[in-house]
Structures are given as structure tokens and as C-alpha cells.
Specification:
By secondary structure, the chain is an alpha+beta fold. The chain is built from 12 helices and 38 strands. The strands form 7 sheets. Strands 6, 7, 8, 9, 11, 12, 14, 15, 19 and 20 form a 10-stranded antiparallel sheet that branches. It has an 8-stranded parallel beta barrel with strand order 21-22-23-26-27-28-29-30, surrounded by 5 helices. Strands 5, 10, 13, 16, 17 and 18 form a 6-stranded antiparallel sheet that branches.
């Protein structure tokens, strides 16, 4: 069984296929964290929890000598009752105090996993896929309860955690801090790995040794953000891609988050993840409850790749949902970098016709098709067709493109409103704002107040009208600014610090309704590229536009970092024009193709202007990707050589049936008289033989892993090579 309770020692053992997570109810009814790591057989681990006279000023808990919560690894520490480290929960009561004392009251173990209230989360398709433990803790003085939920995905090798606060008192309670997971480690010999960056260089891998005090990864921008991703990992200092211990923390949430590691004065690490307490307070009325987002905890002793495979598989199979979860994704052409706002239906059809000739499958009409949108100054919120550009409207255009053999997709930015728009003229109070303060614009737009039910309902109906008006099979859902002057005209003063979280709840409501109404539409999320590439959005939309930066060399780092957590099929990758529109770099089209074939493949350039020689290359790229996309989108990804450390970068994919291997290599800069490179592969069957297609060579799996593939001599900067291997039967 995945969860076993030993009544004699009051110990809970949560077991996945390879890991154990152990917690224990102490005699004082506090809940202690005992162990998390490689799977163990022992049933009683009481000896792990040790105490001594620290000879310090620490406060005894319950006035028991040498029993100090500050020196006890806890499951979910509160504030103000002898543990003065960073709490996981902080409440404020009607008497103005904030000290809490949560202790074990009861527990419940059941098969399966319940849905979270109004929040995205992992799910089961059969109750035997997971077991759930619910621990109920109570602060008896204030009559407030915590329910800590742990769901164990035994075969997926992951544990999810969430928290519910229930106010059973007759008074109001303010929630000032409620994190989704807390883990107290018994040492601090770790490095912190995070995915950080900025617009156009998202999710770069940063890895540094943790130190005394707190170190945080957080967003205060209203979204998970380009700057930080709601993920962190604690890794042992000798951990590599294939070897060593990794503890991963990922939050299924799209708003302000905090991932924090505190190293206390006794060199113990406390790791936490959840909603950012910054500018957050939630008024919990009597008899109400509040549910925090779900955190996904992953342990691997098989290096970073081992952790990635667990997240990739769980998120691909039990977070993504709907028709396209298990279907190969179409090769698309997007007109954005081809035309920007300067197009009409004639130009769009020219690009679509050429895309058909080259074998592409989906045409996506990007920004500029609605309202009076000839630039980014106006019309967001006015979701009706600009028939001056598109004579006859969307239905006529989409039908004609369908007749060419292409599916038709459409760009929206439904969370925003332009001050120059019909919607804003009619409803100036529908944006996030503070009365009397300046309404600061970014990209000449404001944010619609999704904390308001009337705004959410309006958007649901307007987007539904458009999607019902034409044969639209794909939607790119964009969001292009962060929050400022956060306030809502609908909420009272004592609820204004709820706006950012209520916005996310409103967004999830809108996404749930629209994706349910249109189950046959493939939705792709976007936020200025990768500004909201997070598990919360992945629940509703099975793929994400990875970055607005389409430069092949910059994409190496972005895509490497993204693969740490997110499934291959969720990563949108396009070939674009050169000089690249973001960094002005010129790279060969062959290299652009190799790099873009690392996820969902597509193009973003004016293919009507390319020479015939490049069109022939594109035709071959499209043909090849159709043959290998199932392996790339749904196989296992292995990072062989990192762009953060090396001039030569490599990665590979192995198909689900282990019959096909795709290996990619990029040399960034040419070197004179450089050494021969042999690329050692991983994850193969050493007793099998593999044919290197196109080279008429058969090599043993043991040779490929211990000697490697010979990389040919590549001349010039930004050169690439791809190999396709098949297992010999």
C-alpha cells in the first residue's frame, strides 16, 4: 500500500515505487517530519528524532525541558508558538494576535484523489492510481482547523500536497500566510537549483550553494512571471544529470508565488513553496474555508534527469487533460513575425497556400484581426472581426484555409483591455485599478479585473461567440503585462489584498468554462512568450509558447531549462527568419530546424519570400518531424551536454517503446584544430543493436553509451547535426 499508518508509533509511511516519505505524530500531538528519500523498509524511525540540551535561549515547548519545536523537523509549522523559524501558516485573529498552535486531531486515508476547490491540480483516472492521507490539525483555542492533504502517486513516483484552512469559530480570521508545502531537512548540504531569467531568456538554469539565512525565488508580478518559475530543487553538491540526490518542489499555480529555503543557525534547511505572502491577506469568515494550491514533491537519486522524467510524465499524463493530451500536435505556421499587424486576407491566404505546399498542418492568425487593431495601441477587449482587413470575416477565411488542407487557429489576449477600445469606454471600472491613482499602462493596455464575476462572464461569452463563429481548431491565449496599482472596484477595503489571488481564481474559472465548451480546440497558453509557463496553465492548455525569443542559440538555454520540469509536448518551438528579430543573429536554417524539433514544431516567418532552396529544406524538415514527432513529444528527453557549461550542446529522445532514438547536437562557435567529439548516449539497452539511419551503420547499445556517436567535422559557427537511430529487431 502507498500509505501505511502504524498506530503503535503514530507513524505514517507514504511510499511511491522508489521513495519513502515518513511523518509522525508526537506525544504532544505536533506532527513531525521524519524522512524523505530513497525507499526504505523500516516501520519505526523514532530514533531519527533526537533532542539535546542546546545550551541556548530557545524556548521549551509546553514547558517540557529539551523539547523545542525550533529544533524539531515539522510537517507544517505555525507562527509564534516557540518555533521562530519561517512559518508555513500565519493567521491573525480578531484580538489582533497571530500565534497559532496546530496539533493533530485525526486522519483519514482513502483510495484515489479528490479535486481541489476551484484550483487546477493533478488527477487520477482510476482510484487505484493514488492514495490520499488527510491530516486534520486544530488550534483548539481559536477553533481553526488545518487539513493537510498528501496524495501518493505510487507508479508516477510523486507526492502532491495541499492545505485547507477551515474557520470553525464565530469570528473572522485573516490568513496572512498559507504555503502549500513545508519540508524540514536535517542538514543543509545542498545547492539550490532554480529556473530564472527575463522576457526572451526565460527559465535559465541557476545553481548555487545555499547559505545561512533565507534565499527565495518569488514573483510579485501577478503572474508566475518571466523572471522566476514556480519551481525549485535542492540538490546534493555532487549531483549530475544522471547521478545524485534531487528534491524537487513545483507549484500548480499561475500567480504570485514564493519558494523559500531557510538555513537556521544549526545548519538545518527548511524548504517551502506556496502563494506569496507579499501583499496577500484573505478574510476567512466564520464557517468558511480556504484551499491553497497544490505542490508536487519529487525525490530522485538518479540525478536531475531522474527528477525531470517524473515531472514530465506526471504532468503530461495526470495534469494535462483533454483530447490533445495524448495526441501528436500539428506542425503550425504563425503569421506574427511574417507580417506583424500589416496584413489582409490576401496575404494570409498566400502564406497558408505556401504552408500547404510545404506540408504544414495548421495556420495560426496572430494579433491584429479584431477591432481596429493596426498596432498595439487599441482594441483589446473588442472581440469582433476587423472586416476591413478580413473581407467576409473569420468564417470565410477559416473555411478557405481549411479547403487548402490546413486547420485554422486564432490568437486572443482576453485578460487585457486597451484604453482605446469600445469595451473600456463602456466599462472603465472593469480594469484593475485604485481610485484616484494613475492607471499605469504597459504595452498601452490595462488588465481586466478577473476577480469580478461580471467581467469573467463577459469574457466567456465573447470568446465563445468567436470560437462558435468559424471552424477554429487552435487558440493561442496570450497575456502581455504584469499587475500594478492592484485594486478592484467590486471589493470592500478589507478584501483589497485578495485581488491578485482572486484574479487567478477568476482566470481559472474562465479557462475551465471555455476549454469545457470547446473540447476539440487545441489551446496554447502564452504570456509574452514564457511569462506564465507554469503547471497551473498546463492543466487547461496542454502546450505553451516557450518564449518570444525564437533565436536558435538562445533557445538552447531556454529549452534546456524548461525541460527540467515540463513535458516535451508542452514546449512550443518555432523556426523563424534571420537575422533573428530578437537578437539579430544569423543561423543556418538547418540549425534552426534541429533546435526547434525539441518540442512542438512550427514556423514563424514569411515563407512566401524564401528562396526555393530553403523551401526544399523546410519541406524535408516537415516530412522528418512528422515521422519522429511522437518520439519527441511523448518520449523521454535526456540532456547530454548543457549550453550553460559547454560550447557543444547535445540532447536526445527515446521513444516510449524504446525502439527509436533521436539525438541532436549544436556547436555554438567554431574552433580551430579542435578535438574529435564522441557523444556518449544514455538510457539505451546495452545488449541491443541500433542502426544509425542514413549511415548504414549498426552499433551496440553498450558502444553508444560507453564510446559514443562520432560527431562529424562541422565548419562555421552555429552548426548542428541530428541522428535518427532504430533498434535492430
Amino acid at each position: 500500500m502507498a500509505i501505511v499508518y502504524d498506530a503503535s508509533s503514530k507513524t505514517f509511511n507514504l511510499s511511491t515505487s522508489k521513495t519513502s516519505y515518513v511523518l509522525k505524530v508526537l506525544d504532544s500531538n505536533h506532527v513531525a517530519h521524519v524522512y524523505w528519500g530513497k525507499k526504505i523498509k523500516a516501520k519505526n524511525l523514532d530514533y531519527v528524532l533526537r533532542s539535546k540540551n542546546w545550551g541556548s535561549f530557545l524556548t521549551n515547548t509546553d514547558n517540557i525541558d529539551d523539547f523545542m519545536l525550533e529544533m524539531t523537523p515539522q510537517e507544517y509549522p505555525g507562527y509564534g508558538s516557540t518555533d521562530l523559524r519561517t512559518p508555513a501558516v500565519e493567521l491573525q485573529f480578531s484580538d489582533g494576535t497571530s500565534a497559532t498552535d496546530f496539533r493533530y486531531e485525526s486522519h483519514n486515508i482513502y483510495a484515489g484523489k479528490n479535486k481541489l476547490n476551484n484550483l487546477p491540480a493533478t488527477y487520477v483516472e482510476d482510484e487505484n492510481e493514488a492514495m490520499t492521507l488527510e491530516l486534520t490539525l486544530v488550534d483548539s483555542l481559536k477553533n481553526v482547523k488545518l487539513i493537510l492533504s498528501y496524495s501518493v502517486f505510487e507508479e508516477f513516483d510523486a507526492i502532491t500536497r495541499s492545505v485547507k484552512i477551515i474557520n470553525e469559530s464565530n469570528e473572522d480570521v485573516n490568513i496572512n500566510r498559507v504555503l502549500s508545502a513545508n519540508v524540514d531537512f536535517r542538514d543543509s548540504d545542498y545547492e539550490l537549483l532554480q529556473l530564472s531569467g527575463a522576457w526572451a531568456r526565460e527559465r535559465h538554469i541557476i545553481r548555487k550553494e545555499i547559505r545561512s539565512g533565507s534565499q527565495s525565488i518569488e514573483s510579485r508580478r501577478g503572474s508566475s512571471s518571466h523572471a522566476q518559475n514556480p519551481f525549485m530543487a535542492l540538490v546534493r553538491k555532487d549531483t549530475t544529470e544522471q547521478h545524485g540526490e534531487v528534491y524537487g518542489f513545483s507549484l500548480i499555480y499561475s500567480g504570485n508565488f514564493l519558494a523559500n529555503v531557510e538555513v537556521d543557525m544549526y545548519e538545518n534547511a527548511r524548504a517551502q513553496i506556496g502563494i506569496n505572502p507579499f501583499d496577500f491577506t484573505w478574510l476567512l469568515k466564520s464557517k468558511e474555508e480556504f484551499t491553497a494550491p497544490e505542490a508536487v514533491l519529487v525525490y530522485s537519486n538518479e540525478g536531475l534527469t531522474g527528477m525531470s522524467h517524473i515531472y514530465n510524465c506526471l504532468y503530461g499524463k495526470r495534469l494535462c487533460k483533454g483530447k490533445y493530451r495524448d495526441e501528436v500536435r500539428p506542425i503550425l505556421i504563425n503569421n506574427w513575425e511574417a507580417t506583424y499587424f500589416d496584413f489582409n486576407e490576401t496575404k494570409i491566404k498566400e502564406i497558408a497556400r505556401e504552408a500547404t505546399n510545404l506540408g504544414m498542418e495548421l495556420f495560426v492568425l496572430d494579433d491584429g484581426w479584431f477591432g481596429k487593431r493596426d498596432d498595439d495601441n487599441s482594441s483589446l477587449g473588442d472581440w469582433f472581426v476587423n472586416e476591413e482587413k478580413l473581407k467576409g470575416g473569420l468564417n470565410k477565411l477559416a473555411t478557405e484555409i481549411n479547403e487548402m488542407g490546413l486547420q485554422f487557429g486564432l490568437w486572443f489576449e482576453p485578460e487585457m483591455v486597451s484604453p482605446i477600445s469600445e469595451l473600456y469606454k463602456e466599462h472603465p471600472d472593469w480594469c484593475i485599478h485604485i481610485p484616484g491613482r494613475n492607471r499605469s499602462e504597459a504595452r498601452r493596455q490595462l488588465i481586466l479585473d478577473y476577480s469580478r464575476e461580471d467581467v469573467c462572464n463577459y469574457i466567456i461569452e465573447k470568446i465563445s461567440e468567436v470560437l462558435s463563429s468559424a471552424p477554429i481548431s487552435y487558440v493561442k491565449w496570450d497575456m502581455n503585462r504584469n499587475m500594478s496599482e492592484i485594486g478592484s472596484a467590486k471589493l470592500p477595503a478589507n478584501r483589497q489584498r485578495e485581488v491578485a489571488h482572486r484574479y487567478i481564481l477568476g482566470l481559472y474559472k474562465v479557462l475551465e468554462e471555455i476549454t469545457t465548451r470547446f473540447p476539440d480546440v487545441l489551446f496554447e497558453s502564452c504570456s509574452g512568450g514564457g511569462g506564465r509557463f507554469d503547471p497551473g496553465m498546463l492543466y487547461y492548455m496542454p502546450q505553451t509558447w516557450t518564449s518570444d525569443n525564437t533565436d536558435a542559440i538562445e533557445r538552447l538555454k531556454i529549452q534546456f531549462g524548461t525541460s527540467m520540469v515540463y513535458p516535451n509536448a508542452s514546449i512550443g518551438c518555432h523556426v523563424s527568419a534571420v537575422p533573428n528579430h530578437q537578437v539579430d543573429r544569423i543561423t543556418p536554417i538547418e540549425t534552426r530546424g534541429v533546435v526547434a524539433m525539441s518540442g512542438n514544431f512550427g514556423y514563424e516567418l514569411d515563407i512566401t519570400k524564401l528562396p526555393e532552396s530553403e523551401k526544399e529544406i523546410i519541406k524535408e524538415q516537415v516530412k522528418l518531424y512528422k515521422e519522429i514527432r511522437e518520439t519527441i513529444q511523448f518520449g523521454k528527453c535526456y540532456r547530454l551536454s548543457s549550453p550553460f557549461e559547454n560550447n557543444d550542446i547535445a540532447w536526445m529522445f527515446i521513444s516510449k517503446d524504446c525502439e527509436e532514438i533521436i539525438v541532436s547536437f549544436v556547436r555554438t562557435l567554431a574552433k580551430p584544430n579542435s578535438k574529435f567529439i564522441s557523444l556518449k548516449l544514455v538510457g539505451l539497452d546495452e545488449s541491443s543493436k541500433y542502426e544509425i539511419l542514413g549511415e548504414n551503420i549498426i552499433v551496440g547499445g553498450d558502444e553508444l553509451m560507453n564510446i559514443g556517436l562520432n560527431v562529424p567535422e562541422l565548419k562555421g559557427d552555429y552548426q548542428a547535426k541530428m541522428w535518427r537511430l532504430k533498434k535492430v529487431k
